[in-house]
Design a protein that fits this description.
The complex is a heterodimer. By secondary structure, chain A is of the alpha+beta class. Chain A has a single domain, classed as Mog1/PsbP, alpha/beta/alpha sandwich (Protein Transport Mog1p, Chain A). Helix content of chain A is about 20%, strand content about 45%. Chain B contains 24 helices and 11 strands. In chain B, the strands form 3 sheets. A 5-stranded antiparallel beta sheet of chain B has the order 7-6-10-9-8, with no helix packed on it. The chains are: A alpha+beta, B alpha+beta.
């Protein structure tokens, strides 16, 4: 009887938690868990390989999306991790970015840097009508030998608080599968 | 001579395009789901059709197949395949001409046979030769000939011959120098009769181009299934020309042997049912005569053969491809059917010019062009900026379109639709006809601003009346919405330079360097449309990367940042420093959300709340669709993506 009550209690506690779906991109560089209803795309990018995962469209103006970049050392325009971090935090000229202080995390058995950035951008880009929208980016820079991963979640500033726990959960499940070297 | 032979051997051993090789399988996987090129809806230019056939491609029913492949060539593949084939032809033509000059000690005054050979080669490949080579070849042609060749090069091929003209006696082939000691076998009785009727000015097939290699005893890399129309194609009455004195080589003397008609075994020359029937004038024989290249070395000098006619498409012919694109074709050849009564292939015979991006750019030549170009002063200023600061290859591609196709370039926000920067409009079906492309730059986006309890809200709005009409709305009743009203003053604020109108409405003023960058992006989009690339996110990335590259070159030359509006400046700096972030935002705004747009118009007072609610109700509801697992988004065609990455590579390597 006690076991039945306990199972009912646990079932009630975890009933609302969505079942996350494991995802590994075709390139096999990492694995993660995504909330249900998300779509994914992997392709070569400017400095390596980029995977993008788009959330379902809700009432927010900006569709939530994870952008995961494997920045590879032997690509044109490569900059080391620390220089990349500096550029993310730097704000000059017309930029309207405000970054939070960096935190040190342990992600996929590697020492990573995690921080958040708020910035105002015209949304949508290149199409009218458009208006400035405050975006909220969650960043994690994860070293991988001479390469590094940038894990980024971009959401509407109005809804960023709901995604902070999601980003932490995502990072806990994020695993780098194979290094290039 | 050794380096030349080395070059020639390299040219002849150039690999086939990716689609024609064994890697097609993996490539086809990548291209799965893309639309095949449909000959019935978009007939090929006759020259391109011949080029493909001579390179081993099969034009069957409505589709094009690479040799030994069963999947048809994709629509967006074709322009790349043709570019590749033209490039190899160009190299071979240059080598042939180089050989002629080489044996005459690079004297400009050539003996008559060599001069005539040079003229034939140059005439055949005029459109694909580099401009510097064309300039060097001008002394060998009259002014009228140059004018005709230039006209055909820029405006596309001349109108197709009428069907009735096909039955008229053929014009004699132009006299071509050929070795006096060599004999050409008379055309066999089974030679296709129509080959005598084809114009002699058509390009030579690969086998003929490879003929120049014979004195060097270099084996030509000719597809085994390539029909060899050279010898039997010559009219019986054609006189054998006198050749220049060239030492005979074993390879060359082999030409003296008559070329025996070889009936290939079944597996070597697969024939598709109804292919011969699709050619009204095809040979009535049941087997196809195919000569392997290695068995019969070609003559030492190029011979202009009667080219194979373009097979007219058969709209009524059943095609299994739309229903089963990857269905395997029969492995064994099917005997060709006797020629059917000639249908009226008017549509199939229409020559459709195929776009070839400009291969070179001369700043001086473009300056001369601009002096007489039919553009207003403001547009010419933008084009001059592009000619000065844009980087290669974007510059020659974009300005090549301006020079060759004379697009209509407008600085008019009222014609740019919903686009924030520029819009490309195709006027008419044939984009290759001069003046048929219209590019409208949004030179002054309209700004609507109103105060809130805390702060203010700013929205950029289109001022194209067509945009509002499509939504059932009236354009905003603002002075700034009318391009006929002049602003009261100009101020500089956080939005950039802004024109203020009498009623307080605003318009952003964009600098010439910003407009030139937008023009470059729009011209590159026109280039992609001309190539048949699907419009997708990678096209936008490619155009935007080229635009940023132009701004960076401009900044370097001027010693200051380009004058851009704040959003464009932010994006430009992001592209310079954080290219991943820059691309991320593009991807995240890939989809236009109509509900967000409606709410924005409502908040701007352009739509009542009732109208907005009714419009929102009408929108399709797609977010509640259940989904299992993670949905993989479709990957678009590779060419726009590769072109974008190449632009980025060039930009990053020169940093």
């Amino acid at each position: 009887m006690n076991a039945l009550l306990l199972s009912l209690l646990l079932g009630t506690l975890y009933a609302d938690e969505p079942a996350f779906i494991p995802y590994t991109p075709p390139g096999g560089t990492f694995t993660c868990e995504l909330p249900p209803g998300w779509s994914a795309l992997e392709e070569r990018s400017v400095r390596g390989i980029s995977s993008r995962m788009f959330g379902p469209r809700d009432d927010e103006r900006v569709r939530p999306a994870y952008h995961i970049h494997q920045v590879q050392k032997d690509t044109p325009g490569f900059i080391p991790l620390m220089e990349g971090l500096k550029r993310e935090l730097r704000c000059e000229g017309a930029c309207a970015r405000i970054a939070t202080p960096m935190q040190a995390w342990r992600i996929s058995e590697r020492g990573a840097k995690v921080f958040e950035v708020r910035e105002s951008r015209l949304f949508p880009q290149e199409t009218l009508p458009a208006e400035p929208v405050m975006l909220h980016h969650f960043y994690a820079f994860i070293p991988d030998k001479e390469d590094y991963f940038i894990v980024k979640l971009t959401v509407d500033e109005d809804a960023f608080d709901a995604y902070r726990s999601e980003f932490r959960r995502f990072l806990q499940k994020f695993r780098i599968l194979s290094s290039r070297r | 001579m050794l380096p030349l032979s080395l070059l020639l051997s390299l040219a002849l051993s150039l690999p086939e395009p990716a689609c024609a090789q064994g890697s097609q399988d993996s490539f086809a996987e990548e291209m799965a789901g893309l639309e095949p090129y449909d000959l019935s809806s978009t007939p090929l230019d006759e020259r391109d059709a011949r080029l493909l056939k001579e390179s081993g491609y099969r034009l069957e029913d409505r589709y094009i197949f690479a040799s030994s492949q069963t999947s048809p060539v994709g629509r967006e593949d074709l322009s790349f395949i043709l570019e590749d084939l033209r490039s190899r032809r160009r190299l071979q033509a240059l080598l042939q001409m180089d050989m002629i000059f080489n044996r005459n000690d690079f004297q400009k005054k050539l003996p008559e046979p060599d001069r005539e050979t040079l003229r034939v080669i140059a005439r055949m490949y005029w459109g694909i030769l580099p401009s510097a080579t064309r300039k060097d070849l001008k002394p060998y042609f009259s002014a009228q000939e140059i004018s005709e060749m230039n006209l055909e090069m820029s405006l596309g091929p001349l109108p197709p011959p009428r069907i009735a003209e096909k039955a008229t006696p053929p014009e004699p082939a132009p006299p071509l120098p050929r070795p006096a000691a060599r004999s050409v076998p008379a055309p066999s009785a089974s030679a296709p009769a129509e080959q005598n009727t084809t114009p002699a000015s058509a390009p030579a097939p690969l086998s003929v181009l490879a003929a120049a290699a014979a004195p060097l005893a270099i084996a030509a890399n000719i597809p085994a299934s390539l029909p060899r129309p050279a010898a039997p194609a010559l009219p019986a009455a054609a006189p054998i020309q006198t050749a220049p004195q060239v030492p005979a080589t074993p390879a060359a003397t082999a030409v003296d042997k008559p070329i025996p008609p070889v009936s290939q075994p079944a597996a070597a020359t697969p024939q598709i049912p109804n292919t011969a029937a699709a050619m009204p004038s095809a040979a009535p024989t049941a087997t196809t005569t195919v000569i392997p290249a290695s068995a019969t070395p070609a003559p030492a000098f190029p011979i202009i053969p009667a080219p194979a006619p373009l097979p007219p498409a058969q709209p009524a012919a059943p095609s299994p491809l739309p229903s089963a694109p990857a269905a395997p074709l029969p492995a064994s050849p099917t005997p060709a059917q006797p020629p059917a009564p000639a249908p009226a292939p008017t549509a199939a015979l229409e020559r459709v010019p195929v776009y070839a991006p400009s291969a070179s750019f001369s700043p001086e030549g473009f300056k001369v062009f601009l002096a007489t170009a039919p553009y207003p002063r403001e547009v010419k200023a933008l084009l001059e900026l592009l000619a000065t600061h844009a980087r290669e290859p974007e510059r020659r591609t974009a300005l090549g379109i301006v020079r060759d196709l004379l697009p209509s370039l407008l600085l008019d926000s009222s014609r740019s639709g919903r686009h924030g920067s520029s819009v490309l409009v195709e006027q008419g079906k044939d984009m290759l006809r001069p003046g048929n492309i219209q590019i409208a730059l949004n030179d002054a986006p309209m700004i609507l601003r109103w105060k809130k309890l805390f702060g203010k809200r700013t929205v950029r709005l289109p001022d194209d009346p067509g945009y509002y009409e499509a939504l059932g709305l009236r354009p905003p009743a603002l002075d700034a919405a009318s391009r006929d009203k002049a602003p009261e003053r100009e101020i500089t604020e956080e939005e950039g330079t802004v024109a203020v109108y009498k009623d307080g409405s605003l318009r952003l003023r964009l600098s010439p360097e910003q407009l030139a960058g937008e023009l470059l992006a729009a011209l590159l989009e026109a280039d992609a449309r001309l190539k048949g690339w699907p419009s997708d996110i990678h096209l936008r990335l490619r155009s935007a990367a080229a635009r940023n590259r132009f701004w960076r070159a401009y900044a370097k030359a001027q010693g200051r940042q380009p004058l851009l509006d704040p959003e464009s400046l932010t994006a430009y700096q992001e592209w310079l420093e954080r290219p991943e972030d820059w691309a991320d935002l593009f991807f995240q705004t890939m989809e236009r959300d109509p509900s967000v747009e409606l709410r924005l118009l409502e908040s701007a007072g352009l739509l009542s709340s009732e109208e907005a609610s009714a419009a929102l109700e009408r929108l399709p509801k797609g977010k509640t669709v259940p989904q299992e697992g993670v949905k993989e988004l479709p990957v678009s065609g590779p060419y726009a993506r590769e072109s974008w990455l190449e632009t980025e590579r060039l930009a990053r390597e020169s940093q």
